[in-house]
Amino acid sequence: MKIFLYTFLFLISLSLHCQKKEFSQEELETKIEEFILTKKLDSATYFLKNLDKSEYKSILEKIALNEKLTYKEYNILFSNLSNRTSIRYERISNFIDETIKTPETNQFNKSFFQIKCDQIYNLRDDVSVEKASEKHRELEKYLSNFNKNDIAIQKASLRIQTHPIVLNLIEKNVEDGKKLTLECLEKSRKLNDLELQIMFMYHLSDFLVIERKLDEYIKISEESLALENQLQKHTPYYHAILQHLIDAYIYKGGYTDKVLKLIDELYNDPTYKIQTYSLYLKLLGRPDTDTLIRDQVLQKFEVSDIKQLVEKFQILGKDLNQNDFYKLLFESSNALVNNDFLEEALEVKDQSIALTRKIYSQDLSKSLADFKIEQVEKTKQQEIENEQEKNKLYSLILVLVGVFLFISLLIIRKVLRQSKELTHKNEIINETLKEKELLIKEVHHRVKNNFQIVASLLELQTKGISDKKALELVNEGKNRVKSMALIHQKLYQNDTGLIDFNEYLKMLTKELSIAYKQKNNVETTIDAVNMFFEVDTAIPLGLIINEIITNAYKYAFHNEKENKLSISIHKEAEHFKLIIQDNGNGISEDFDIKNAKSLGLLLVNRLVKQLHGTLKQLNQDGAKFEITFKDNYTRGLVH
């Protein structure tokens, strides 16, 4: 009796302790939203008691009590959910599909239309283009039910054209995408809708970037900004337009006063303040930025030189996400170089390279982890269901043991039914596995596209660089990015998860021969047949080969002679051997590649260590590099 009493008192104490735990209002909202998504409405109701009174709380209470919401209230709910980075948007989209039904009235519902527009946008960016296109078709069908002469329907029909415009932009179909954008812009002007005009001018500027029409890009962005200033409330495109103009002005040069004014405007907005640090550094990284502008920025942040400014921005920008912090490091390096802090610039560049690898690893690990978690959950659910079925079967046998024949017939019937269910479940699992394989391929596709965007930005950056050394560094960086992009292109194009290095080397040498087009008479021999590597080996190996071939093009090859380059990879006992040889003048006898100071050769040495390998340099009718390395499986055996 005493044990029971003590246990009872302990449970009461524990309950009171849990009730005392305090949550912030934002944490409470997040918990309640999670309970609503998982349909645990009793738990949502419990936590709602501690939430401060607001319009949003009343919306959450209605859902918890299974009361009907208006489309406008649903719009507020889904906008809040979409801003939660902790919730995968696919879950929100599924909740929308379960909850929101197409209005059955003959009246156009603007709030319903806005919900579906936002769903298309978020699905396209966070889930898949295919699902976004499916919702786009559904919304087109909805609009077809109304009078096309109605101004509201005309505006809505124009608004959903942003989806095909963005698809053309993704596919780089400039001709069709730009034509559609201009048509929509003209219709928006006839309707005198400033917000629609700003929207389509923003998308038009994206096509002008691809066409490299800088003056038109600046003109369109300035017109968009002028329209924004006519509105009582800025559109969601306003801050993006400011950043477009800042980038364009910096790239063209001669607009430093305007650039500083625009950056200061963003800085004064608390939401965008932290994003402006990289923009200030981008301005100071330009050779044409005068001393007066530089001194204004230094004075604003109470520092004496660029080195101190970079250090301060790294502290102020500690809350940036990893991608934005990489951008801050990138612009920091450029600003340090332009202001003669070369040693510090190299240190920051090393930080950015390390961060890039970390981002890549984390993104890939997260995608794989999510996939594995889902599979484990499904396996556990399958085991639970099977165990429940077994218990039912055993109970049935015990209860009806006296009528053996009748039980036998029931078992046979049940086994047949379970067989069909299992077959159906296996089909679902196989379909899910196919979807996950497509997801992994999509990840590689997006990473490849991101690398190509970085390469394109570096290409644009070279247009404004007059210093030969800086231009060479940027071009080398661009080639490194392209070598990694090729890896992800090969992964996206096959189903094995391995890169055929014979094909990869052909593509890489072709890219480099184009980059050094003035030295195009190089006879290249490649021998890497049946050499396949996974991504953790392929990335560093590709970068190593890129650096050595780049040095050959820069120092070994001349137009006056017959140039030769050979690359081979073959398997030895416990490792692989990579040999790269050219027929140039060779390497100076007193040169030690392991103690080289150049960024490229430093990178080669670090990557060789990463592959648990060795690096050997020889002079043999030219320069010869022998590199031994281990693949991912062999390296794993060492740990």
Automatic annotation (TrEMBL):
<keyword id="KW-0808">Transferase</keyword>
<keyword id="KW-0812">Transmembrane</keyword>
<protein>
    <recommendedName>
        <fullName>histidine kinase</fullName>
        <ecNumber>2.7.13.3</ecNumber>
    </recommendedName>
</protein>
<keyword id="KW-0472">Membrane</keyword>
<dbReference type="InterPro" id="IPR036890">
    <property type="entry name" value="HATPase_C_sf"/>
</dbReference>
<feature type="domain" description="Histidine kinase">
    <location>
        <begin position="442"/>
        <end position="633"/>
    </location>
</feature>
<keyword id="KW-0067">ATP-binding</keyword>
<feature type="transmembrane region" description="Helical">
    <location>
        <begin position="393"/>
        <end position="412"/>
    </location>
</feature>
<keyword id="KW-0547">Nucleotide-binding</keyword>
<keyword id="KW-0597">Phosphoprotein</keyword>
<dbReference type="InterPro" id="IPR003594">
    <property type="entry name" value="HATPase_dom"/>
</dbReference>
<keyword id="KW-1133">Transmembrane helix</keyword>
<dbReference type="InterPro" id="IPR011495">
    <property type="entry name" value="Sig_transdc_His_kin_sub2_dim/P"/>
</dbReference>
<dbReference type="GO" id="GO:0004673">
    <property type="term" value="F:protein histidine kinase activity"/>
</dbReference>
<dbReference type="Pfam" id="PF07568">
    <property type="entry name" value="HisKA_2"/>
</dbReference>
<dbReference type="GO" id="GO:0005524">
    <property type="term" value="F:ATP binding"/>
</dbReference>
<dbReference type="Pfam" id="PF02518">
    <property type="entry name" value="HATPase_c"/>
</dbReference>
<keyword id="KW-0418">Kinase</keyword>
<dbReference type="InterPro" id="IPR005467">
    <property type="entry name" value="His_kinase_dom"/>
</dbReference>
